[in-house]
Amino acid sequence: MGNKVAPKGSASGGKRKPLPFERDSLGYISERSVLALENLYNHVPEPGSEPCPSKVPAYRRAAVLLGLFVGRNGELYVILSKRSSHLRSHGGDTAIPGGRFEPTDRDLEFTARREAYEETGLPIDYQRTIKLCELQPFLSANELVVTPFVVLLTDKQVQPHLNPREVDSLFSLPFSSFLHHHPPQEMRSSLRLTSDPSLEKLKAQMSEVMHPSDWHSCRDILWLGGSRIRRHTFYDERNPIRGLTSDILIHASSLAYGQAPTFVLEAPGQPSQARLIELAFNSPLRIQRFRVKPRMSFLLQHATGQASSSVMGDNLQQPVDEDSNFRLAPPPHPASTGLDQSQEVEGEDRQSKTSKSKL
User: Fold this and answer.
1) Cα-Cα-Cα-Cα dihedral sign, residues 24, 26, 27, 32
2) 12-181+198-315 has CATH 3.10.20.30 classification
3) 244 within 8 A of 294, measured Cβ to Cβ
4) Other Cβ atoms within 10 Å of 145 Cβ, number
5) Which of these, 65, 90, 306, 325, is most buried using a 10 Å CB contact count?
6) Which range scores top for mean pLDDT: 2-16, 160-174, 234-248?
């Protein structure tokens, strides 16, 4: 655990691209952080990370903007939001700013930037929020195909302007913290953790598959035909980070620092994100709807060591939409990260009514 790993993906021709800005413009930054930025800037998702693009309709695509900045001791920090408790979907959860693709978006990167601006006031300006890379797509609990874009915030004068209908608050955490089950001592104060965790807190945050920690725990669930999936939670005192948000942060930080996490990342036999996307959109499990209820169930551990599930989420009644006969969008052009607007879903009026539905 915690061994160095080579970052997956590379620049064309195998050559490392220099960062598109002067290091001095960032103020003090550690060598470790510079290398992390270089790794991200040279990252390209592996071929096949989106297995069936022609099967994924535009209305089931979304994007998030993973914003980094140089913070204390020259280390990288990530910007996170606490979703409004009034939202219908995942209200009160910690999120990476983002949302659904809309017909007026020219590509998925613009989706991520527009949504981040609408939610938090993070500028769409491509010079003040410099794109580092696009990550592999992820499948959300509501079965949206979510593409993360990693950017570096270079303007330290930017002030957030929160949309209270969507976001309650913003906070930041050390980017490398998502690689640790037990954070190193020098990081604990940045995570608002005491130098020595209390026994009561450890008992309250027991993990099914790891030794107790006051920062990280995990448990396994069943999803999409009984696929066993490990879900990770990080216990920030302002709001826990879990689910899709944790998955993206673990993946991004692993790529950046060239290091595997110090915990067991996946459940036995866990399918890849590409396989989950294929199950959701190109298998008999596919649901052709604008909204999909989470089809997950908890995996219960018995004293015998055998696992069973609680009520199976695959049998949940799905919501009834105004129109379930949606036309599927063709795949995006290979040279583009977005979708051609001439290929959008029919019924723009319906889209405009529901476009603010979040991840």
Assistant:
1) negative
2) no
3) no
4) 25
5) 65
6) 234-248
